[in-house]
Design brief:
The protein is 38% helix and 18% strand. With 285 residues, the protein is of the alpha/beta class. It has a domain of 196 residues: 3-Layer(aba) Sandwich (Rossmann fold), CATH 3.40.50. It starts with a strand and ends in a 6-residue tail after the last helix. This is SDR family oxidoreductase.
Length: 285
């Protein structure tokens, strides 16, 4: 099988590794020639796809691939991948499986109540509106849409934030977030490849939505450290984007990936995920 990934970022790189481990040939797009050369040394054919240059071979890659996955977010002009390659994606030799990495942010604020894949997308954030529009365009092509929750994994977790001194314990009563380990994201995408259902939407998230300060406290406990002091949300120094995450609150169900795709999460909550990362040496020495 030949698999093409648009945008080989953090999550997509783990998906690529998972697929390669299963004997699947992976091609990916990146934004710089230096990154493309680095990936070539790791056995991944890489093409440059950026706002300033588009490798002409990408259209041929689409037509020769059995499956494609886009992790490229939309911008003010729409979806960059569809803007450049809609003709190739809808050609007679189109891939049999199409995937799109999205976000649970499309659901908006549900006051901490549960949502699932049938819940309307009500977020009013401008970037979420762009994401909703992109989802609809991909779904119209028969794509499988994966709505990811807060992503963590090696090098990107609360243990590493403790080590760097950037961990914060922000308190906003009633606020919860879902999370997902990158290894579980890869497992869900691979399961969908084996059980395709064009136009499917899946929440790719753990089993336990939890307050953010609880995760920081657990990470500190694993490291034998005192957790950072509590900071009220209103007093916290957050970027506008980080602050916006706290303005929407919901608990996200993941039943469909388990019942339809047969996925058993390796890390059903942050406890298993952080414990495994700590065992690998992540966090303070």
């Amino acid at each position: 099988m030949k698999f093409l990934i648009f945008g080989l970022g953090y999550s997509a790189s783990y998906i690529a590794q998972h697929l390669q481990g299963a004997g699947i040939e992976v091609t990916a797009t990146v934004r710089t020639s230096a990154k493309a050369e680095e990936l070539g040394r790791r056995g991944i054919t890489a093409r440059v796809f950026s706002s300033s240059y588009v490798d002409p071979l990408i259209s041929d890659d689409i037509k020769s691939s059995d499956a494609i996955l886009s992790s490229v977010p939309p911008n003010e002009s729409g979806d960059p991948v569809l803007a450049s390659f809609i003709g190739s994606i809808t050609s007679d030799s189109r891939p049999r499986w199409i995937g799109y990495l999205s976000t649970i942010g499309v659901y908006g604020d549900h006051l901490g109540n549960w949502v699932d894949e049938t819940t309307p997308e009500t977020s009013e954030k401008p970037r979420s509106q762009l994401r909703i529009a992109a989802e609809q365009r991909w779904l119209a092509l028969g794509a499988h849409v994966f709505r990811l929750s807060g992503i963590y994994g090696p090098g990107r977790n609360q243990l590493e934030k403790l080590a760097s001194g950037t961990a914060t314990r922000i308190i906003k009563p009633g606020q919860v977030f879902n999370r997902i380990h990158v290894a579980d994201i890869a497992a869900v995408v691979a399961a969908s490849l084996s059980r395709p259902r064009a136009g499917a939407i899946y929440n790719v998230t753990d089993n336990e939505p939890a307050p953010p300060q609880q995760v920081v406290e657990f990470a500190a406990e694993l490291c034998g450290r005192t957790p950072p002091p509590e900071v009220a949300f209103d007093d916290a120094e957050l970027s506008p984007m980080a602050r916006s995450f706290y303005l929407e609150n919901c608990r996200v169900r993941n039943d469909l990936i388990r019942t339809e795709l047969g996925v058993t999460l390796a890390y059903p909550s942050y406890r298993e995920g952080l414990s495994a990362l700590r065992a690998l040496g992540e966090g303070p020495a």
